[in-house]
Amino acid sequence: xxxxxxxxxxxxxxxxxxxxxxxxxxxxxxxxxxxxxxxxxxxxxxxxxxxxxxxxxxxxxxxxxxxxxxxxxxxxxxxxxxxxxxxxxxxxxxxxx
Length: 97
What we know:
The protein is an all-beta fold. 0% of the residues lie in helices and 16% in strands. It has strands spanning 4-7, 14-17, 20-23, 26-29. Strand 1 (4-7) and strand 2 form a beta hairpin.
Protein backbone atom coordinates (compact mmCIF):
# COMPACT_ATOMS: atom_id res chain seq x y z
CA UNK A 1 0.00 0.00 0.00
CA UNK A 2 1.43 3.41 -0.89
CA UNK A 3 2.23 5.95 1.78
CA UNK A 4 0.45 9.28 2.05
CA UNK A 5 2.86 12.18 1.50
CA UNK A 6 1.66 15.66 2.48
CA UNK A 7 3.54 18.91 2.01
CA UNK A 8 3.73 21.48 4.81
CA UNK A 9 4.11 25.25 4.94
CA UNK A 10 7.88 24.78 5.35
CA UNK A 11 9.59 24.39 1.97
CA UNK A 12 11.05 20.88 1.67
CA UNK A 13 9.28 19.49 4.75
CA UNK A 14 6.80 16.66 4.15
CA UNK A 15 4.70 14.43 6.39
CA UNK A 16 4.73 10.78 5.35
CA UNK A 17 2.18 8.35 6.76
CA UNK A 18 2.48 4.67 5.92
CA UNK A 19 -0.40 2.26 5.69
CA UNK A 20 -0.34 -0.98 7.63
CA UNK A 21 -1.46 -4.21 5.98
CA UNK A 22 -2.89 -6.71 8.44
CA UNK A 23 -4.14 -10.25 7.95
CA UNK A 24 -4.18 -13.55 9.87
CA UNK A 25 -0.35 -13.75 9.72
CA UNK A 26 0.27 -10.38 11.37
CA UNK A 27 1.06 -6.99 9.89
CA UNK A 28 3.40 -5.36 7.40
CA UNK A 29 4.42 -1.73 6.85
CA UNK A 30 6.76 -0.23 4.25
CA UNK A 31 8.60 2.42 6.26
CA UNK A 32 10.51 3.84 3.33
CA UNK A 33 10.14 3.58 -0.44
CA UNK A 34 11.44 6.36 -2.70
CA UNK A 35 8.38 5.99 -4.95
CA UNK A 36 6.16 7.25 -2.10
CA UNK A 37 7.75 10.71 -2.28
CA UNK A 38 7.01 13.49 -4.78
CA UNK A 39 9.18 13.26 -7.93
CA UNK A 40 12.45 15.15 -7.51
CA UNK A 41 12.30 15.33 -3.70
CA UNK A 42 15.43 13.21 -3.29
CA UNK A 43 17.25 14.85 -6.21
CA UNK A 44 20.32 12.73 -6.95
CA UNK A 45 20.82 11.72 -3.30
CA UNK A 46 21.06 8.15 -2.13
CA UNK A 47 20.37 6.83 1.35
CA UNK A 48 23.69 6.53 3.17
CA UNK A 49 22.57 5.81 6.72
CA UNK A 50 19.46 4.66 8.60
CA UNK A 51 19.33 5.08 12.39
CA UNK A 52 16.84 3.85 14.97
CA UNK A 53 16.65 5.44 18.41
CA UNK A 54 14.47 4.25 21.27
CA UNK A 55 13.26 6.76 23.85
CA UNK A 56 11.95 5.40 27.13
CA UNK A 57 10.76 8.57 28.87
CA UNK A 58 8.09 10.94 27.50
CA UNK A 59 9.41 14.47 26.95
CA UNK A 60 12.96 13.35 26.16
CA UNK A 61 14.81 15.60 23.70
CA UNK A 62 16.72 13.46 21.20
CA UNK A 63 18.75 16.10 19.41
CA UNK A 64 19.02 19.34 17.52
CA UNK A 65 20.39 19.18 13.97
CA UNK A 66 21.85 22.03 11.94
CA UNK A 67 23.87 21.41 8.82
CA UNK A 68 25.22 23.74 6.16
CA UNK A 69 25.88 22.93 2.50
CA UNK A 70 27.51 20.89 1.20
CA UNK A 71 27.17 18.69 4.31
CA UNK A 72 23.42 18.83 4.86
CA UNK A 73 21.44 15.60 5.19
CA UNK A 74 17.85 14.88 4.29
CA UNK A 75 16.08 13.81 7.50
CA UNK A 76 13.30 11.25 7.69
CA UNK A 77 11.69 11.00 11.14
CA UNK A 78 9.42 7.99 11.78
CA UNK A 79 7.47 7.11 14.90
CA UNK A 80 7.18 3.33 15.22
CA UNK A 81 5.12 3.34 18.41
CA UNK A 82 3.61 6.08 20.54
CA UNK A 83 3.91 9.72 19.50
CA UNK A 84 6.66 12.06 18.41
CA UNK A 85 6.79 15.82 18.65
CA UNK A 86 9.15 16.94 15.91
CA UNK A 87 9.99 20.65 15.96
CA UNK A 88 11.30 22.21 12.74
CA UNK A 89 12.86 25.68 12.48
CA UNK A 90 13.79 26.91 9.01
CA UNK A 91 17.06 28.85 9.35
CA UNK A 92 17.84 28.99 5.63
CA UNK A 93 18.80 32.47 4.49
CA UNK A 94 16.18 34.00 2.18
CA UNK A 95 13.86 31.00 2.60
CA UNK A 96 10.20 31.61 1.78
CA UNK A 97 9.23 29.44 4.73
